[in-house]
Every structure is written in C-alpha cells, then in structure tokens.
Specification:
Blueprint: E1 12-15, E2 18-28, E3 36-43, E4 49-55, E5 61-62, E6 65-76, E7 79-83, E8 90-94, H1 95-98, E9 110-116, E10 119-124, E11 128-135, E12 149-154, E13 159-163, E14 171-175, E15 181-184
Antiparallel strand pairs: 1-2, 1-5, 2-3, 3-4, 6-7, 6-9, 7-8, 9-10, 11-12, 11-14, 12-13, 14-15
C-alpha cells in the first residue's frame, strides 16, 4: 500500500471503511515536529467533506478508479441519465451524486464520470458551459454607472449576475466552479 506522502488530488481512498475522494493534499513539516500530510477528503456516500491528518509514513489504501466521458441525456424524477458516446451504454445517477452540477447540465453536454470498482460515484464538469438566458429584466436607461449588473435566469434554473446588455435568448458562458458570468458565447 502507498504511504500518505504519495496521495494526490483526485485519488479515491478507503478511510474509516468508506470511500473518500481526495480534494486537496498538503505536506507539512512544522518546526521541530514530525512531518505529516493534511488532506481534505469528501465522503462519496454522504457527500460530507472534512480535513484529515495522516502521518507521512502511514499506509493508505488507494482504490482503482476509471474516468470516462459521457453525454448527458435527460433527467426523470430525480434520476439523471448519461450515455457513452461510443458504446451507447447508459448510466443512471441519483440526484445526490449529481448534486449542484445539475445547474450546468443541458442535453448533449459532455461530462466526465468517475467510476470506483465499476460503480459511478461522481461527475466532473468542464471549466465552463454555454447556457441560454430565459429571463432577464430590461435595463433601465441611465443605469450606466461602472459595472452595473442585473439578475438573469438561465435554461437550467440557475440565476446569475450579468451585465445590462444581456437579453432573453442570449447565450452566455458560465464558470462551473463558482457560477459566475464569463462572457457571451
């Protein structure tokens, strides 16, 4: 088994009889104390995150994972359906696994699905997505002070702040990390 020093971001490990994904890893050597590894882990079953401290020589069980590209098809009663573009194999993911990513999913968009021991456990979105504006109030003439923004609702139901010139029907580029407006598409 590898040592805690070998942990990398994105690894899936078994910790306290549960599978956890490693979100962040830092190797620390404080003053006259022994070195340790500070890791931020997210439980794949419950979705809860927390910090864990490992001794730098402590063994950690790293699980075999596989990442594959899938195309989002549709959602029905809280179940999200994804299709493999080459084998046409369909994968069903629950709302708990998809979580906040649902705000950025539109039909035919590509996502990366993480499999642990053949079971899908997490999806990763691209850094940005293009979404259509469905609701956006008209700008009021004279509201041209520097960097004035208004609220817009997108096709997935996500609401973001956009510049005044954005209208209903426009396509906008949105960051999937923080949900911010990045520009027109």
């Amino acid at each position: 088994m590898p040592a805690a020093n070998d942990l990398r971001k994105g690894n899936v490990i078994r910790y306290q009889n549960d599978n956890h994904v490693v979100l962040d890893v830092q190797h620390r050597t404080p003053g006259n104390l022994r070195a340790f590894v500070q890791a931020k882990l997210r439980n794949l079953r419950t979705g809860k995150s927390g910090d864990v401290r490992f001794s730098s020589t402590e063994s950690v069980e790293v699980l075999m994972t596989e990442r594959q590209q899938y195309e989002y098809s549709y959602e029905d009663r809280g179940v999200y359906y994804f299709l493999h573009p080459e084998t046409f194999e369909q994968v069903e993911l629950s709302e708990e696994i998809v979580a906040d990513s649902k705000n950025y999913l539109v039909p035919n968009s590509m996502v990366e699905v993480l499999f642990v021991d053949g079971t899908p456990v997490q999806i990763s979105l691209p850094p940005s997505v293009t979404l259509k504006v469905t609701e956006s109030p008209e700008a009021i003439r004279g509201d041209t002070a520097s960097n004035v923004q208004k609220t817009a609702t997108l096709e997935t139901g996500l609401t973001i702040q956009v510049p005044l010139f954005i209208k209903e029907g426009d396509l906008v580029k949105v960051s999937t990390t923080d949900g911010s407006y990045m520009g027109r598409a």
